[in-house]
Design brief:
The chain is mainly β and 109 residues long. The protein has two helices and six strands; from the N terminus they run ββααββββ. A hairpin with a 4-residue loop joins strand 5 and strand 6.
Length: 109
Amino acid sequence: MHLPSAKIWLIGEDKNGIATVAPMSLKEYHDSSMNLVTNGFFEKEISRKVEEFGHLTQVWSSYEWRSTANGEVGGRGINSIQLYNDGKRYWIMSWTFDSERPNNPLKDD
């Protein structure tokens, strides 16, 4: 589903509240997420907004996650997903996400 050159961007804040961004390849993201795979991770989309122009598609996907399928919500955030449509299928070019924090609340639709 991803282009071989796809990038993942993690946006957040450091301990001092300064904005940070961490770009990584898909392989780097998978390698850094092995703890999530080992312990389990359940993400549910709670809203979506899609915009298309030509072969470019932008998806805003709000989510919530849990450690177990029916457990308490562990957090929420938004994925910004950029897709390329080659006329036959969609390819994920990149996606970026930022998590909900007290100073960065997710607005419910």
